[in-house]
Amino acid sequence: MKIEYILFGFGILLCLAGIGYLAAEYVKYLSEAGRLVSLLLTVGMFGFLGKYFEELGW
Amino acid sequence: MRKNLFLYLTLACFFSLIVIFVVDGYLGVYDTLYVTSGEREEEIEADFWLRQEWSWETGVNWGENVFLEYEVANHLFSDYNADITASVWRGQEKISDLGTQPVVIDPFDKAEVEWLVDSTELLPDPPEQYYQYSIIIKRGEIERKIIVNIHPISYPPQPELVPYR
After folding, report:
1. Three-state secondary structure call for residue A3
2. Given phi > 0 = left and psi -120 to 50 = alpha, else beta, which region is B106?
3. Nearest CA of chain A to the CA of B12: how many Å?
4. How far does A39 lie from chain B, in Å, by closest CA?
5. Contact assignment for A52 to B13 by CB distance below 8 Å
6. Are A29 and B25 in contact (CB under 8 A)?
7. How many angstroms separate the CA atoms of A5 and A13, rounded?
8. Whole-model pTM?
9. Looking at CA atoms only, how far is residue B17 from chain A in angstroms?
10. What count of CB pairs under 8 Å joins A to B?
């Protein structure tokens, strides 16, 4: 059971690393305004995700 | 209900990010350069200039031409106006102007400008070693640099025929 959670965590970390790498590569093609809005949306996304987990009782 | 609201807001932020990446990545003015030297055509796309590389290098044998086709794509909702200038440089010295062409590009349209560089005009006599020239294309504040290596003719000259006696 525990090994499954470790593998899930490893997979999630790989996904996040891949998405982060793609975003870092692609952000070069965005305008300054686009980068700013993307940053705000990223902050908002993680903020709301944190609130969601907080409501779940994590 | 409240926790679902946070989940929906998270998803909304995520999909907004995807939309911004796609739309803002597409919008803009992009240039593509086609360089034909000898029998080889090279396509230099806009993202090449966004990376660390700042110049493209190509080569041609003396006596051959370098053909340049510069394509500007306007992915904006307004017209795009610019003067496109090309010139040949060696070191800090300008050798020749290839010409200036003003372009007016409609929204979501493209325009092309062409130039021909004759290696015999740059080097009238056959060289014994290779020479480097820079072709600099300017579009407003944006500058693209192509380094052209002109190689000497590699094969030996034909011997003169001696009449048979």
Report:
1. helix
2. beta
3. 8
4. 9
5. no
6. yes
7. 12
8. 0.75
9. 6
10. 53
Q: Is B19 on the interface with A (CB under 8 A)?
A: no
Which two three-digit tokens encode residue A49? Answer: 């995700």
Extract the tokens encoding B135: 């072709």
Partner-chain residue, chosen from B3, B20, B47, that has the shortest CB–CB distance to A56: B3
Other CB atoms within 10 A of residue A16 CB: 10
Contact B46, B33 (CB under 8 A): no
Residue B115: the pLDDT is: 93
pLDDT, tens only, B63-121: 889 999 999 999 999 999 999 999 999 988 899 899 999 999 999 999 999 999 988 88
> pLDDT band at B12, cuts 50/70/90?
very high
Using pLDDT thresholds of 50, 70 and 90, give the confidence band for residue B155. Answer: low
Residue holding tokens 């020479």?
B131
Residues 31-50 of B with CB under 8 A from A: 47, 50
- B9 to chain A, any CB pair closer than 8 A? The answer is yes
List the alpha helices (DSSP H) in B27-150: 46-50, 119-122
Query: From residue A47, how far is each of A4, A44, A58, B4 by CA, in Å?
Result: 27, 5, 14, 14
SS3 call for B74 = strand
